[in-house]
Amino acid sequence: MKRLHFLLLSAAVIVSAVFCSCTGTAGPTIRTESVTFTLPVWPPEDMVPYPPLLYWDIQFCSGNLSGTCRVFVQDTADTSFSIKTEADIPCAVTAQPVTRIADSNQAFFSPAGCIYPAESTISWENGFPAAVCMQLYRSSETDAAETSVCLANFNWKKFCSTLAAKETAYGAEWNPWMLDKTAVCTAIAARSFGAALLTVKNYFSIKAEILTHRTDTGMQFIPRYIPLFKRQRETETILLRKGAANFYLYNMQQIAIITGTGSSNLTLEITSVPLYTQK
């Protein structure tokens, strides 16, 4: 894998059921297995308002097998789907919740995910590792077999457990989507990955009241990374990346774009324009 570039999935199947089967494209004849994955519960927390869920946008990649599907849920708990994966190699699965915000369908929240066979339960915490694995499959310039061997030899279970340990240690100051995904992918592809790449840099926290005072409301700012919202409420802080646009859902209807380098240097813009629209 010499360098990374982005490719598009070539197949998409839309299904509507609480239990659905997703299919995709395959290359040469390969040994496969059927695996059932379990989706997170929506809403993620009881008695906490979230936008209504319309469907899950599922993407998966496993060697020569890849595809997409939509899972329309009628029941918010214990929703499962099955896919056919290539046996003996990692299968990256991401589940993007598409919710109704204002008058549009939006893929605002960061996806949940998992990497099989390490896990078959899709979680918010493992969305980032799944996205990394999927990007490596899609962007490889070598043949699929060599890429599959490289990814099969990588210790994804340790990768996920390291992220989980950081989540426990850093609490409200942890968001894996603030990591440099390109640097992580490049290092894994070059077989030079080190845990130092799993350190979030250039971030700061502010008291939530700084933003609520600016908006003159008691509305909460919901982050794209779902697990962060609970910790954010507990500490009454908001995590931001320095010098970058930080997107938060505001009053269930609008997107707040926050930029700055510290609590005394902040810009807040509230927009009603959909930023992550899905049809």
Describe the structure.
With 279 residues, the protein is an alpha+beta fold. It has 6 helices and 16 strands. Helix 1 (127-139) crosses helix 4. The longest helix is centred in the middle third of the chain and has 15 residues, at 156-170.
Question: How would the blueprint of this fold be written?
Answer:
Elements: E1 13-14, E2 19-22, E3 32-38, E4 53-62, E5 65-71, E6 80-86, E7 91-101, E8 104-106, E9 112-116, H1 127-139, H2 144-153, H3 156-170, H4 181-189, E10 203-207, H5 208-215, E11 221-223, H6 226-235, E12 237-241, E13 246-250, E14 254-262, E15 265-271, E16 277-278
Parallel strand pairs: 1-5, 2-6
Antiparallel strand pairs: 3-6, 4-5, 4-7, 7-8, 7-9, 8-16, 10-12, 11-13, 13-14, 14-15
Helix pairs in contact: 1-4
Keywords:
7-stranded mixed sheet, 279 residues, alpha+beta, 6 helices, globular, single chain, 4-stranded antiparallel sheet, disordered N terminus
Largest sheet: 7 strands, mixed
Q: Show unreliable segments.
A: 1-21
Write down the overall mean pLDDT: 85
What is the oligomeric state here? single chain
Q: How many distinct helices? A: 6
Question: Short description, anyone?
Answer:
Helices cover 23% and strands 33% of the residues. By secondary structure, it is of the alpha+beta class.
